[in-house]
Amino acid sequence: MIEFSPEVIRTVIRTASLIGAGAALIAGVGPGIGMGYAAGKATSAVRRQPQARGAIITTMLLGQIISGSTGIYSLVIAIFLVFNT
Amino acid sequence: MNPGPQIKFYLFNKEYLPVTDTLIVGWVSVILILILAKYLTSNLKMRPEGKQNVAEMIIELIYDQIEPMLPNEGWRFLPFIATIFIYVGFSNLIGLVPGVTSPTGDLNTTLGLALVVFIVVQLEGMREHGVWGYIKSFAEPVIFLLPINVIGELAKPISHSFRLFGNIVGGGIIMTLIYQAAPALVPVPLHAWFDFFVGMIQALIFGMVAIAYISVAKS
User: Fold this and answer.
1) Is the CB of A23 inside 8 Å of chain B's CB atoms?
2) Measured on CA atoms in the order B121, A61, A44, A70, is the torsion positive or negative?
3) Does B177 contact A at CB distance below 8 Å?
4) Distance from C-alpha of B179 to C-alpha of B44, rounded to nearest angstrom
5) CB of B20 within 8 Å of any CB in chain A?
6) Domain extents for chain B?
7) Model pLDDT for residues B129-175, shown as the tens digit of each residue
8) What is the pLDDT of residues A17-75, one digit of tens each?
9) Is the preceding peptide bond at B141 cis, omega within 30 degrees of 0?
10) Domains recognised in chain A with CATH numbers
11) How far is A15 from chain B (nearest CA, A)?
């Protein structure tokens, strides 16, 4: 049985949480793809109906922000991992 | 996370809940909103002019969001949604003042607001379907979905509060990093983005998601 000093254990936990914080931000890929897709669809919608530009942009922004919140959750988890341990 | 500067109270060697800067800035913004609302709505006329136009513009902007999602009940929900919208928007904007942290950059504020919305959603659902009818609606269409529906309902205030908190804190952290790298000129357009644009959009989203939750509970 190997005994570790508390300092070693703390360092390992800190390292693991920092790696975890970095890994959590991989979740930024998904919202990026989703928001880009929404922006592309909005662009083609504006091309088809230029007079509805304002309503399209508002709807696009709302949808993008709702779909972007999954990325925000990963950011929150990363912030907790960095600052809480 | 680092709770920031605190004022602590001691009475008979017992420590009480500390007063954080979130609490102070939150109350200051409440008082500022009260003064602003009093100023904007004083001396109302049938033909609006000057400051009354601003007040009507804000109210109509919020009303136009509520009415399509909750038909014929726009005026009933306007005070609640407008309170949330104006408070969150003002709290995000107050972060523009140097040295002041937004109250919405604290999970306590956003979770409190989200819990208020959660309670209103439950009460509105019960009002619409009756207490037993609302509880029964969780077990539809089959009884096996009951735990999933309950968890989904409980996840709403968490996602609702984390969205606002994450956006404001993320913007704040990026601004802190920018200030360390380039203290002059560069942060100005970024302040316009992170505090003004993102703050306004997030306030609108916070209110709109609250409306969406209420309309889902009522349908």
Assistant:
1) no
2) negative
3) no
4) 44
5) no
6) 6-218
7) 888 888 888 887 788 888 888 888 888 898 888 888 888 888 888 88
8) 999 999 998 988 999 999 999 999 999 999 999 998 888 888 888 788 888 888 888 88
9) yes
10) 11-84 (1.20.20.10)
11) 17
